[in-house]
Structures are given as C-alpha cells and as structure tokens.
Task: structure prediction
Amino acid sequence: MRTLQGGIYTGERALFQAHDMKICDAVFEDGESPLKHSRNIETYDTAFKWRYPVWYSKNVEMYGCTVFEGARAGMWYTDDLTMRDCIVAAPKCLRRCRDVVLENVSFPDAPETLWDCHSVKLGNVTANGDYFGMNCSDMEIDDLRLTGHYHFDGVKNVTIRNSRLITKDAFWNSENVTVENSYISGEYIGWNSKHLTFINCTIESLQGLCYVDDLVIRGCKFINTTLAFEYSTVEASIIGGIDSIKNPSGGTICADSIGELILEEDMVDVSKTKICCRAAC
Result:
C-alpha cells in the first residue's frame, strides 16, 4: 500500500480513482470530489475542506479526520466505510452508503445526515440536526446523543441502546425498531409505525406513540406525557404514572397511576383495550 504523507491537494478530482493508498496528515483544499471512485483507502489525521470528497468509493477507512463545513455532502454512494475519532462539521454527509461503521464521531451540524444507508453501526456518536437517519435499515446503535427534529423517519430493523434522543416526531413511518435503556424527549413520537418497542426507557412526549401497529413498552417511565397511544395497539407495562391516555385501539396498558383516561366509544372499540391502574387495585 502506497503512503502519501503531509500533502496539500487542490483542484477537482485531486486523487480521482486512487486505490490501495494510505493518506496521512493531508489537507484537501478547494476542488470537488478529491477521492471520487477510490477504493481501499486509509486516511489518518486528514482535513477535507471542499465538496463531495468521497463518492462512489469502496473500502474507505478514516481515522482522526476532520470534515469541514465546506465539504458538504461528503460521503455518498460508498460501501464499506469506517470513520473513527472524526469530526464532521458538514451537512448532508453519508447518503446511500452500505456497511457503515461510525465510532467516536461528532456531527455538530448534521441536517439531512445518514440518509438511505444500510447495514450501519454507530458507537459513541453525537449529532445535532434535523432528519438524521432517514430511510436507513439494519442499524445497530449504542451511545448516541442526538438533538434536532424528525429523526429516523422511515427506518427499518433498528436497535438503539444507551442513548439520549432530544427529538420531535422521531420514528415516524418506521418498522421493527427497538429502543433500550435510553431517554427520549419529543412530541408525536412514533406515529404511523409498526412493531415499535421501548425497554427500560424514560419517555417524555406530547401526543406521542399514536397510530402505532404493535407498540410494546416494558419497564418504561413516562414523564410529562399526555394524550398517549391514540389509535395504537399497545402492550405496555409502565413504571410509575402517566399523565393521560387517549383512545388506544387495543391491547393491555398497566401503570401505577393514570392522570386522565379518555375512552370515547364513538371513536374506538373500548372493549379491545384492558387498562390496569395499580393505584386503584
């Protein structure tokens, strides 16, 4: 493998079709698509400052690299991409990629990031931006700290553990999502989803978890949560109380206390839902 040390690269397609190459302490200045159509590339402590640095590439590893704001839409249509100990300050990074590993990566400005990617693993990732993770599938996520709105819209086959999500309208139109040992705060969580599971989580929501087909809640706490579960089929075991529940479509809901229970017979078949309020037992 050839090594390039300490270079400063300018101009469009500076290392177009590069392959079997290790790039260290380099700077990619102005010039679009410097590593387009590359393969078998390792980059160490390298700065990317211009648009579209890694497109249509295969087997790219990035360690300790910095993707500056100007390098927007940085990694698209790339397979077997690993990023470790990196900072990505550019928006719209990672789209239509496959077999992605992100470890110890920070996305301080991440609107429209990680879209339509498949087979993704995230560990110790921080991101701030709207529409993070849209239409991805087969994701394993641990220790994600995420802020913004409309996260994980349309995702399939996702497991999230040990994370903190401050988000509005997360998990809309999703399928087969499990969230464990995490904190989630946001309005309208999970609408129009299928097979959505929360285990040992703390959830804060306004009118959240509605229109869900097969919602499972095990050992979760609900704080400042109102008008939950409308038109959802639910199997819920809640620790502590919940402020209000409105018109679930069916299932069993157990909580220590329920501040307000709204069951409107002209809206749902109330016989299909069993409510267990432990404080009343």
Observations:
- The chain has a mean pLDDT of 96.
- The chain is about 0% helix and 50% strand.
- Residues 130-281 form one domain.
- The CA atoms of residues 11 and 226 lie 55 Å apart.
